[in-house]
Each structure stands twice: as structure tokens, then as C-alpha cells.
Design brief:
Length: about 190
């Protein structure tokens, strides 16, 4: 293999590794808030690998414009977000936690909910869109809805296809229809 080819291959691997890292700066850690942590609800939106979750940041921004404080971050930030939510919940500044995640962000949504559960913090809602890996719903989650691609949707278009449903769930206006829903503590679909 020529030295030029080795250099370009190495450079390509470095760039791919950088973009795959949840800590890189590209599109990282945007926060949108209504009025953060005033004893009400908070929505955490967890984006997938490389923040490549088309439309999900915009969804979070629209929810924030409706008055629900919203944090939009990369899936790899879930441990810090969980600690922040635990502190805010324990101080009484946060009462209702909702998490929406796509792809690796969907898997991270369950991880974050489980971490909150270990601290005794309830989670009102977890919505996942084509999550990668398992989807064990922690017992502290009151309501969980998972959307997977169907009928012409793909890994990315599933976000746009279900935005209206997600908005309804977050705003408490939608009953579970057409999605795999898990209800806790006597809540009906």
C-alpha cells in the first residue's frame, strides 16, 4: 500500500472517530429552555450518533416554545443530564421528567431513566424512536412509547413520521395508538 493511501486512510479513520465521539463539538449540546427548573416539567431530548437525528432538535425547540423547558443534547451526555435532573428533583425545582431519544439516544433514554430510578426519581414519559439495542423499561417510568420504522419509513424518517404523536405524548394530549406502549401504575393507553 502506498504511503499516500496509508495517510488518507488514517486521516479518514481519525475524522470518523471524531464524528462518532459524543464529545465532539459538531452540533453539540444545544439547550433550549422555557424557564428552566421552576418546579414543573422538563423534557430531555437525546440525539443519536453524530447528532444525526433529523428534525429532533427542531421538535425540542418547538416544545420549548410551548413553555416546557427542554434540553437537547447528544446521547453520550445522558449521565451528566441524569445527575442534573436528580439534583433538581431532590431540591424540589423539578417534578416531571420526560425523555425522548432517537437511535443511540433512544437507548440512552432508557439508561438515563434507569439512573434516575436508582436515585428514586420517577420519570413521567420515555419516547424512543428506533432505539439501538435493548429496550428494557425501568420500573420508575410511568409511560413509555417506542416507534420503529414501518411502511416506507426508515431509521431517520421515523422522526418526522411520528412528530405529531411525540408532541401529543409530551403535552399529555395523546393516548397510545399504533406504537408499542408500556404503561405503569394503572395508567391506561
Amino acid at each position: 500500500m502506498s504511503s499516500w493511501r496509508i495517510v488518507t486512510t488514517g486521516l479518514a479513520l481519525v475524522v470518523c472517530g471524531f464524528l462518532a465521539s459524543p464529545d465532539h463539538g459538531y452540533g453539540r449540546s444545544r439547550v433550549h429552555t422555557g424557564s428552566q427548573f421552576q418546579g414543573g416539567s422538563h423534557l430531555y431530548v437525546l440525539l443519536g450518533l453524530g447528532n444525526n437525528s433529523p428534525g429532533l432538535s427542531e421538535f425540542g425547540s418547538r416544545i420549548a416554545q410551548r413553555g416546557i423547558p427542554t434540553t437537547i443534547r447528544n446521547y453520550g451526555d445522558w449521565p451528566a443530564l441524569a445527575q442534573e435532573a436528580i439534583q433538581q428533583y431532590q431540591s424540589g425545582r423539578l417534578r416531571s421528567i420526560m425523555i425522548v431519544g432517537h437511535s443511540l439516544g433512544g437507548s440512552a433514554a432508557f439508561d438515563m431513566a434507569a439512573e434516575l430510578g436508582r436515585a428514586g426519581v420517577p420519570v413521567q414519559l420515555v419516547v424512543t424512536l428506533d432505539p439501538v439495542g435493548g429496550s428494557q423499561v425501568p420500573s420508575n417510568v410511568r409511560r413509555s412509547v417506542s416507534f420503529s420504522p414501518t411502511g416506507g419509513e426508515d431509521h431517520f424518517s421515523v422522526i418526522a413520521a411520528h412528530e405529531r404523536d411525540m408532541t401529543g405524548y409530551v403535552l399529555g394530549e395523546t393516548r397510545s395508538r399504533g406504537a408499542r406502549a408500556v404503561m405503569r401504575r394503572g395508567v391506561t393507553p
